[in-house]
Amino acid sequence: MPRDFVDIFGNPWLAAAAAIAVIMGFLSLNALMLIWMERKVSARMQRRMGPTERGPFGLLQTMFDMIKLLGKELITPTHVSRKLYLSAPVLMFVPIVAICSLFPLSENWVFHKYDIALVLVLAFSSMSILGIFAAGWGSNNKYSLLGAIRSILQNIAYEVPLILAVLAVVLVARSLSLYEIAMEQSPIPYILFQPLAAVIFFIAATAETNRAPFDIPEAESELIGGFHTEYSGMRFGMFFFAEYSNMVIVCALATILFLGGWHGPVLPGVVWFLIKVYALIFIMMWFRWTFPRLRFDQLLKFSWLLLVPLAVANLLVTALVLKLL
Amino acid sequence: MLQQETKSTQNGKPSVEELLREAGPLVHLDVLDNLLNQARARSLWPLTFGLACCAIELMATGAARFDMDRYGAGVFRPSARQADVMIVAGTISRKMGPVIKALWDQMPSPKWAIAFGGCTIDGGPFKYPNQYAIVEGADKLVPVDVYIPGCPPRPEALIAGILKLEEKIKAGKNFKA
Amino acid sequence: MSTTLLDTLRQRVPELKTEDNTSTPAAGCTATHVCTTADIPAIAEVFKQAGYCLEMLTCLDMRADGGIFRLVYHFSRADVPDRHRFLADVEPGHEPPTAALLFESANWYEREVYDMYGVRFAGHPDMTRILTEEGADYHPLLKDFGVAHPTDEGNGNA
Amino acid sequence: MPELIHVGRDEDRDTYYLNMGPQHPSTHGVLRLRLLLKGEEILEAEPIVGYSHRAHEKMAENRNYIQFLPNTSRIDYLSGMIYNIGYCQAVERILGLEVPERAEYIRIICCELNRISSHLLWYGTLLMDLGGFTPFLYCWDDRENILDILDEVTGSRLTYCYGRFGGVTMDVNDEFLQNTLDFCKRFRERLPEYETLVTENIIFQNRCKDVGVFDQELAQDFALTGPILRAMGHKRDVRRDEPYGIYDKFDFDIPTLNGADTFDRFLIRVEEMHQSLSIVEQAVSRIPDGPVMAPKVPRKIKPPKGEYYFAVESARGHFGMFIVSDGTEIPYRIHLRTPSFANLSSLRSVLRGTMIADTVAILGSIDIVLPEIDR
């Protein structure tokens, strides 16, 4: 059995503090690199250079952006309802840190072994929508209000196929603990058993993180900034940070459920895990820079009329096949 | 310092403010200011905001050949709350004046303005006596940091303007024009 | 120009003075008609039935030599190149009838004429300014408004 | 407690006003759309213009004919060449000036290249409004090639002042013609690539197919012209109906579709780019030698007293100049009948009942340029 943080540090409080430190370090470093990667990937896809002047290959560009955002004035507009407006970035960021503590990175790298980790992940991931709604409703600006309402409807519409796809994996693995699901997949990753569930999961996950072609809550060309129109300085930086951390979480969940977590021929477990996560993130970025944006009602129709029936059918077929085996 | 000396001795002992002023700032923030200025100079987020012909050259600078993103300036923020530099590109008509003033006030504080094109310097080709329709010059509305002449100026001129603005920000307080 | 159109026009508006200028291409239209503002709606109706669109409506400040504003209407046909120019004189202060009820494009044209010349149109759904700044109390295209000194001695953009 | 958004209650509908205001990423400049919204559905839309009114017509009354030339390419800066040369052709027709053959061919080449560059910019901004950023950069690549070609001979990238009464200022050399041919060949290879990237993209089709359908009487009501009219089935193009210059010597057809929705307006303009390419190729292959400026041009332009009207086909539709001359050197009045002024006013009846995302798509497909509306 792998030694989790509680065994290493003795009392649980110290373990929790260490886990938070590790997660925050991982997430912030990750967000910095992901923003840089997105700008470089989008530049390459658009036949241009992207940031090159700041450090080798523009690596320091995001660091400068973050320092500048830290140094910006935090405007709190008067027409804003303060409680909602100020709590929104926090509300959006707390679930992300919580979810990160549930992921087993490799054989013996796990913060804490929960046997129902999957339920916790799904619960927390649907909490981050509160942050978006608080931001939209709180900033008392018509564009943000539209963005907030759109994000709620989209989130509900894409939570259902997400859970149904995950259920199919749980049926096959017969366990809710991420650690055991990953362990089961040592010979063959589940994507071969459940290709349809994997596709549905990935589409719903892209919608979950509000990224194109499902980025209608902060549709730049229609709603100016969507829910984060009224945020300036590091508060806006938090939304930016949360979006990229959300991407990491969703891709990590996808690797554990479908790509077999840390299993891989030669390299150590953690490296395989990170390679798979970054590959999925690259695909997500690829989506963003090729597809135009779906219209609001088409997006909902796409989920309710296509993804949900498919996911339910997939679930039934899996149950049937397992029954016969 | 001599002149300072005579003032304080007239009323006997030096007043508290003079002592403080001589001692200099209690906390030296120059290093932090310098660091912030270096970061601000290297990541200028322009506001998506085109008025007329110069807006097309602004888009050309954002496009592939003259890529502004190389200098970190390619992130065009539509909302004024998240923008650092307002590039006034095009003729400012009298009807548009108050809108520009409102946008300028909405931008968070370390903000700069680039007057891009002849119309924003002094009305450009549309300037003639008793011109009723345009505001002749962006500096009548917003404090402009860098003026870029041309009608429309070429994208290289805009990049040169942005680099000049970076010089100004990096130099911080002791910037000599 | 189909003769039937001219006849229906002549019935509706008997005292219409027509001058054919197919011979002078520079004029850019097949015929120029001079009419009074009262029968503009009638003319507009005739052209609407015949499938013409109101392509252009503008105004000339002729107060210097004749004390009138001259409205210029252009009716143009969609498929066959055929354009008619109508000149209608308006005394300053009078309100010509609007053509916006028949041709929607006239809505904005008439608002622009009002904005630039001050000629109001009776029956216009939304007679407000369209181009100049809010709270403008002047009509810029009038000949006596803010005349820049004549460009003969200056170099034009003095 | 701050006063929350005023949600007016009239009868049973809770509606509110939303300003897609003068500064908005997808209003192509400084248009303000005042929308009366019920949730996401638009009840009434009223475009408010005037935010880039620059008094072109007042300046026309204070300048003589030569001095108004620079203004013409700043009215609609995307088809600046077409406007500039159109104005020269108008005055030439009034004075009855003869333009040498080579100058006519050069004018045709430059105008059609300008039309392609204007359509390319429209292509990129429409896609950017629908959320796809990459096609914008692709189109801009090709547009830069055109700007280079035109830059060599006219000296400017956007606001050309290349035409004079009686011809053009600079002759073109063989390198210019060779560059144009290379561009046409390279662009013909690129268009299928655009086809796969955008036209066959299922999301783009969903966003554009039968969105913002113009019904037939709008064409007559709002005097629509240009690609919008051709997408409604009317085969109307000033280059073919009232031929000017030497357009009647070239064979090009006028594409028409009758879906009248955003997708058809998109296809029409892509097809027009093909047509313009073929015109340019024909012109480059048949360009004769000779002077580029008419031998005898009057020093002072004093057109005879009278009213004149001349129309050209710009990238957005029928651009007409109504010139009234009182015999002196300064025009009595120049009224600029711009296509987008009429096209945009049709938004009032088209946007009823659509959603905000559709407004952006329809506005993009109408392809307006604000200074051309506000003059």
Task: Describe the structure in brief.
Chain C has 158 residues and is of the alpha+beta class.
Description:
The complex is a heterotetramer of chains A (325), B (177), C (158) and D (375). By secondary structure, chain A is mainly α. Chain A has helices at 5-9, 12-45, 61-70, 82-100, 117-138, 142-173, 178-184, 195-208, 220-223, 233-258, 269-288, 296-324. Chain B has 177 residues and is mostly helical. A 3-stranded parallel sheet of chain B has the order 1-2-3. Chain B is globular. The relative contact order of chain B is 0.15. Mean pLDDT of chain B is 86; it is low at 1-9. In chain C, a hairpin with a 5-residue loop joins strand 3 (52-62) and strand 4 (68-77). In chain C, helix 1 packs antiparallel against helix 2 (40-49). Chains in contact: A-B, A-D, B-C, B-D, C-D.
Low-confidence runs of chain D: none
Silhouette of chain A:
globular
User: In which range does the helix fraction of chain A lie?
Assistant: 55-70%
SSE pattern of chain D: EEEEHHHHHEEHHHHHHEEEHHHH
Radius of gyration of chain A: 20 Å
What is the element layout, followed by pairings?
The complex is a heterotetramer of chains A (325), B (177), C (158) and D (375).
Chain B: H1 2-10, H2 16-23, H3 30-42, H4 53-62, E1 85-89, H5 97-106, E2 112-116, H6 118-122, E3 146-148, H7 155-171
Parallel strand pairs in B: 1-2, 2-3
Chain C: H1 3-12, E1 17-20, E2 31-36, H2 40-49, E3 52-62, E4 68-77, E5 83-90, H3 105-117
Helix pairs in contact in C: 1-2
Chain D: E1 8-10, E2 13-20, E3 32-38, E4 41-48, H1 56-60, H2 69-75, H3 80-95, H4 101-129, H5 134-154, E5 163-164, E6 167-168, H6 174-199, H7 202-208, H8 217-221, H9 227-230, H10 238-241, H11 262-286, E7 306-314, E8 317-325, E9 333-337, H12 339-345, H13 347-350, H14 356-366, H15 370-374
